[in-house]
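Feature request disguised as a bug report, sorry. It would help if multi-protein outputs had a clear separator. Right now it looks like this:
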Amino acid sequence: MSLVRILCFVLLMLLAACASHPLDMSDDEWGALTLQQKLEAREKQAELDLKARELAVEQEKRRNEERRIARVKEREADIANGLIVEFYPAKAACIGGDKCRPRDVNEIIIPLHGLCAIDVVHIYADDRVGNRHDGVLEVMADHYRLERVDISKRSKWYQVFAGRRARNVVLKTVTDDEVQVYWVKVFGSRIDSGQIEYRVIER
């Protein structure tokens, strides 16, 4: 056995000192192997681990592509149903309480980019931040209050019916508790902008 292979084996042994034996061998099976056989077993396990990682990467790529396709189809269906504006931040927008960053932010203003007749607002949110879980969102069309929604600890969709004309949708925390907003969809129709396309707002 070459010196390089011996050094590699010693390094592998040190790295795996607290790990189980390769190829799911028992202590007796491992102890019966020669130094050369142990090195070969380690190399074989390394090959298997590499293949497993490559397979995991490919599976994640497929899942991401499936999610992307599903997202495109969902958006197409939403547009057909009158989607005006979609608020979809890369990271959940945390408002209210004292655990959110930045602090002292208790509302989200979603501009509709023109006067719109709002039919319904869909909100995906939760109250999972902090030790208290009594978050309440006030949903407004401009300055008109549509509804106050009790937000649960579990992430889920909420539906608020509007039937109002407005230029903005405003989400505001009522209690001194944090609320995380992941996604907002505003459905209805545009009135004065002449635009029929929907908008995605990210931040």
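(second protein starts here, but nothing in the output says so)
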Amino acid sequence: MKSISSNHIRFVRVAGLLSLLAFIAMPLRAMAAQPVQPSAQTSAPNNGSANMRELQQKYMQVRGQLTQIEAKAIKSEPELIKKRQAFREQLIGVMKKNGDDPQKMIDSLKTIGQQMKDKKLSDSKRSELLGKARQTQMGLIAAERKAMQDPKLMAARKELRTATMAAMRKIDPKTDKLLGEMRSIEQQVIKAHSGAGQ
């Protein structure tokens, strides 16, 4: 049970970090949306794992709604596209300055995503690729966190976040409610994980 909780809390944290307002790259968000597969030893049905799957499904449903709202908001405000692109270039520039290569990691995730589409892929190979994807994701997250210590970049993200949220609220007034639901689900997963570890 504990291993299932660990997998799912890792999924939520990764999905959250790479969610709507991470602004690194769309392919990365798509990779993060892939649920973590439970191992054969933990696949036996029980109330705990069923609840985790339900929470994960609800999380992805809400996140999907927010992604659609975000896409509509960006389409409705061309200036927002320019701001996002400028921030992305600024972020990647700081990451490179720090000695990281975000594009290489993003390309790696794209390649893994393509390989995962192969229906003939063995379970062992699929597990290996998922491991590589998680490792690459964590490396990218670490690089982003390090870059975000830059004061100018922090200010730029705050400005972009504010502009994006304002545009999303114009498109759909339920934006704040949906964001609240996401946070609530994350807290439920953390609480369930803590209980399972006792």
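Even a blank line would do. Unrelated, but nice: The radius of gyration is 18 Å.
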